[in-house]
Amino acid sequence: TKDWNGIDSIVLRNPRGASARVSLHGGQVTSWRNEQGEELLFTSSKAIFKPPKAVRGGIPICFPQFGNCGSLKQHGFARNKIWTVDENPPPLSPSDSHGKSFVDLLLKPSEEDLRCWPHSFEFRLRVSLAADGSLTLISRIRNVNGKPFSFSFAYNTYLSVSDISEVRIEGLETLDYLDNLCHKERFTEQGDAITFESEVDRVYLSTPKVVAVLDHERKRTYVIRKEGLPDVVVWNPWEKQSKSMADFGDEEYKQMLCVNGAAIEKPVTLKPGEEWTGRLELSVVASTLSSEH
Ligand code: TA6
Questions:
Q1: How high is the ipTM of this complex?
Q2: Core vs surface per residue 196-227: b (16+ CB within 10 A) or e
Q3: Which of 12, 77, 165, 184 could bridge 20 with an S-S bond, Cβ 3.0-4.6 Å?
C-alpha cells in the first residue's frame, strides 16, 4: 500500500486480525496492532512526514551508528534511506517463518552512502507477524567483500503506554548503565524495577534476553525478547525535552517509552563475508498486578 507520501509500505496481517506495517522509507515499522485493532506502538501526533527525516515513532532502525558517538549524523543513515523489497529472501529456519506473514527488506549502500561510510554492507531486514500477534524483526548485516568494518545498532522502539508514571521495566535491575544525561558516565541500577519520574536516557549494558515493560493502567506487559542485542536503551524525554522537539507533542512523553534492543557498548566488527544477526521479538501479554512472563 502507499504510505503518507507515496512511498510504499507493506501491511502484514495474521488470521486473527492483528497487523503490522513497515515502510520502505527507513525500513521503519510504523504500526503494530493487536487483534482488537489497538495500536501498540507510539507515533507522535506531530510527526513530520518528510523524507529523509525519520517519522517520530514506530521502530526506526539506528545503523551504522547509534546516537551521535561517531562521524555520521545522529543514529546513522539507514532510517533515512529508501529500502527495497527482497523478492527472493534467503531461506530462514522454520521457526522464523512457519505460520508467519513476513516481508524481507534490503538496504545496500548508495554511492552517497559509500562516501560517508565506505563499507560494502548488505542489510536484510525481515519483519514478521506471528499467529499470536507477536512482531519479530530480524536484521542480518553482512560485510560483502570489503575491509573489516564496525557498527553500532538499535531498534529504536517507541512503545505506546497509557501513563508513563504507571509504567515499570523489569529485567534491568542491578545492571550497569551509561547515562546519556551525565556524559555517558557509568552507574549501577538499584535493585528495584525501573520507574519514571523525570527524563531518562540510558544504555543498560549486558542485559538479559528478556525484558518486560509493565503498563499497570492497561494491565498489559510488553515482553521484549532479543538475541545479538546485549544492550537496552531506555528513553523518555519528559517535559523539557518534549518541548524542544518540533515533531513531538509537549505532553506526549506521558504516552510513550523507548526501550530499544541495541548493540552499542561493544560495536559489532565484521570481517569480509561475516554476517551479524540482531533479532527482536515483541509480544504483549495481559498482566495482573504482579508480572509473570
Ligand atoms: O533513544 C535514545 C536517543 O538517543 C535519545 O537520546 C533521543 O535522541 C532519541 O534517541 C531520539 O533521537 P532522534 O534522532 O530520533 O530524535
A1: 0.96
A2: beebbbbbbbebeeebbbbbbebebbbbbbbe
A3: 12
